[in-house]
Amino acid sequence: MAAIVRRGGRGGLGGKASPQEQGGSGGDRPPGVILRWVILPVAGAYFLIPLWAALRFAGIKALGSVVTQAGFGDALWLSVRLAIVTTLITIALMLPTAVYVHLRLPKVRRLLEGITILPIVIPPVVLSVGVLEVAPGYLKSTPYLLALMYVILAMPFAYRAIDAGLRALDLKTLVEASNSLGGGIGTTLWRIILPNLRTALLSATVLTVALVLGEFTMASLDQYQTFPVWIVAFDQTSGPISVAASLAALIVTWIVLMLISMIGGRGRLRGQGATLFSVTRRDPPGGS
Questions:
Q1: Domains of the chain by residue range
Q2: What is the homologous superfamily of the domain 70-269 according to CATH?
């Protein structure tokens, strides 16, 4: 009893713990909070000051006149089409590959990670020349040859986004449970795996779209006027309009990123993903 009273007097049962016992130092902020408030303004200034300088150089009126310039609509529409085609092909290739490697060939995962990193190591000029040498003639006459090149460039980012999503799942248990309930490969992939990978697929999508909308080297070598090529070409005639177009592209990309983040966050709050089993807690007849 005396032990209980002594413990209560020091914050156990009836007393109040001292700041040292609560893990604090009596009102002093931890170093991590102070460091955070130092790093965030510096990082914000690093990104915002160049944008502010570009806006001052171009002017507010130049942002509104970008859409009326010659070739703007065609270049932007070509980049959007290439982004859609590239994203569809990339997801269609990377998703089944990553799922199969996680399920059947886990020892090959490291090798595949090394292979998918090669497009970052190999220069885009070398990739473009190599693809032009082996591509069939009917593809060389269409801008969709760029989509195949962009799939190679987007492979490292898309694969790692999908791989991170698969590592967060108990994939083997989900697949085995789906098979025990009569689900085939297509049903399991469409109704079980895809809903659980929605955030990972959104990440892969935004990375691929951002890469396509900002790629310049391959498009210029293949002599197609995508949106980045149009910006560089227009820079020779009007610098402020070119800078305004770059700012508009950044703003649109940020808006897309925010929308994807909101969609992914809303899915997590709603408990995204399919559940194979529904467990309901039932209290015993006599209460607790």
A1: 70-269
A2: MetI-like (1.10.3720.10)
Distance CA 149, CA 90 (A): 11
Q: How far is CA 66 from CA 52, 80, 220, 226, 275, in A?
A: 18, 17, 21, 15, 48
Tokens of 283: 């209290």
Which CA distances in Å does 266 have to 143, 199, 217, 260?
37, 10, 37, 10
What is the full DSSP assignment across 70-132? TTHHHHHHHHHHHHHHHHHHHHHHHHHHHHHHHHT-GGGHHHHHHHHTHHHHS-HHHHHHHHH
Residue with tokens 């929605």: 198
Question: What tens digit of pLDDT does each residue of 85-106 get?
Answer: 999 999 999 999 999 998 888 8
**pTM for the model:** 0.72
Nearest to 217 by CA among 226, 209, 204: 226
